[in-house]
């Protein structure tokens, strides 16, 4: 048996061992992590950022940024950040979010900055002052109340939050339980966006509104109107401007992002309210699954009253992929999703 080194050498050997360990780069943790922060929750996969859920910087919670399968940002930065070359329109289009122009007459779609473009009140011109006064008449908020679950393991991360829908005076009129599930699948990144609305305070009337639903604002380079190769397509074959107002189980937006062709599809599950959804899909870069608004007079949706104690469920999946909808095999991915029991 080899003899132990003299006692005075042992601390030196130990310190050398620690130095060698420190010199070896730390290996990123495999699988998902979900970390609570002062802003909300940060989701990572294999040590790389996937998305951030932001709860306290606007009149509604949202995801920004969201990174696709190759690590490129898949959401426009404005208004959270100003990036040269981006579009600076629609201040309320924050990454990935839900909003509704009229639930009990209250608007959670727009926000104060929609009228002011983020400027302080003393910098507003007369037209902006009038727009702000009009906006504030019906402006409400979706207020994060609490996290029911924040968890992660090798295969997924989960955020479950409870949200209060508040009117112009801060009075609650509706409860939402939101479940976000983050996964990876064969080179794609997935976010399931499941919502359960509960009429806890009394009847809740979801109005017939164009600006309502589950949304993503894609990078400006992907927008069809940027004329850099962006493409918008529905599962029924409608493309670009012709896709607006149509009803279909899924829609896909693809185009160039920092030298790569990337895309995001938005899936509407068969168990979701009023499936298949109508699409408020715009060539300037907005993709919205809107089952509430009558976008096509020949194919109406219309208002829906949720009686006190009743529930309304929306189920969607964001599917971030390489290439266009064909390269990304979006149709096959949707079929797998549609077969999942919810």
Task: Walk me through this protein's architecture.
Helices cover about 10% and strands about 40% of the residues. By secondary structure, the chain is mostly beta strands. The chain has one domain: Beta-galactosidase, Chain A, domain 5. The chain is globular and about 45 Å long.
Radius of gyration (Å):
23 Å
Overall number of domains: 1
Structural shape:
globular
Q: How does the helix and strand content classify structurally? A: mainly beta
* Termini separation: 63 Å
- Low-confidence parts, pLDDT < 50 over ≥5 residues? 11-28
Main beta-sheet strand count, sense and barrel state: 8 strands, antiparallel
Please name the defining characteristics of this protein.
342 residues, mainly beta, Beta-galactosidase, Chain A, domain 5, 8-stranded antiparallel sheet, 4 helices, 18 strands
Question: Quick summary of this structure?
Answer:
Helices cover 12% and strands 38% of the residues. It is built from four helices and 18 strands. The chain has an eight-stranded antiparallel sheet with strand order 1-2-3-4-5-11-16-15, with no helix packed on it.
Write the layout of secondary structure elements.
Blueprint: H1 10-23, E1 32-36, E2 40-45, E3 48-54, E4 62-66, E5 96-100, H2 112-116, H3 126-136, E6 141-152, E7 157-166, E8 172-185, E9 188-198, E10 204-206, E11 212-217, E12 231-234, E13 250-257, E14 260-268, E15 278-281, E16 286-290, E17 304-306, E18 311-322, H4 330-339
């Amino acid at each position: 048996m080899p003899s132990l080194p003299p006692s005075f050498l042992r601390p030196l050997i130990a310190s050398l061992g620690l130095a060698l360990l420190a010199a070896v780069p730390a290996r990123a943790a495999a699988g998902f992590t979900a970390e609570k922060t002062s802003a909300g929750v940060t989701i990572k996969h294999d040590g790389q950022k996937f998305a951030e859920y932001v709860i306290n910087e606007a009149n509604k919670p949202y995801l920004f940024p969201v990174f696709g399968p190759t690590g490129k940002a898949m959401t426009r930065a404005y208004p959270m950040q100003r990036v040269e070359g981006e579009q600076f329109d629609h201040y309320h289009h924050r990454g990935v979010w839900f909003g509704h122009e009229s639930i009990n007459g209250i608007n959670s779609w727009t926000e104060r900055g929609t009228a002011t473009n983020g400027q302080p009140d003393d910098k507003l011109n007369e037209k902006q002052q009038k727009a702000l006064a009009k906006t504030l008449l019906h402006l409400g908020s979706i207020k994060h109340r609490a996290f029911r679950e924040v968890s992660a393991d090798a295969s997924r991360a989960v955020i479950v939050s409870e949200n209060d829908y508040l009117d112009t005076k801060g009075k609650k009129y509706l409860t939402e339980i939101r479940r976000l599930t983050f996964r990876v699948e064969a080179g794609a990144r997935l976010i399931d966006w499941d919502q359960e609305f509960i009429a806890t305070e009394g009847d809740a009337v979801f109005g017939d509104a164009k600006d309502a639903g589950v949304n993503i604002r894609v990078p400006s380079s992907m927008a069809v109107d940027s004329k850099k190769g962006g493409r918008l397509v529905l599962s029924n074959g409608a493309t670009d401007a012709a896709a607006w107002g149509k009803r279909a189980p899924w829609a896909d937006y693809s185009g160039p992002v920092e030298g790569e062709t990337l895309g995001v599809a938005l899936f509407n599950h068969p168990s979701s309210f009023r499936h298949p959804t109508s699409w408020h899909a715009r060539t300037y870069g907005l993709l919205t699954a809107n089952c509430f608004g009558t976008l096509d007079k020949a194919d109406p949706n219309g208002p829906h009253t949720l009686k006190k104690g009743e529930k309304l469920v929306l189920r969607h999946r964001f599917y971030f992929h390489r290439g266009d909808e064909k390269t990304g095999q979006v149709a096959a991915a949707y079929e797998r999703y549609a077969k999942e029991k919810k």
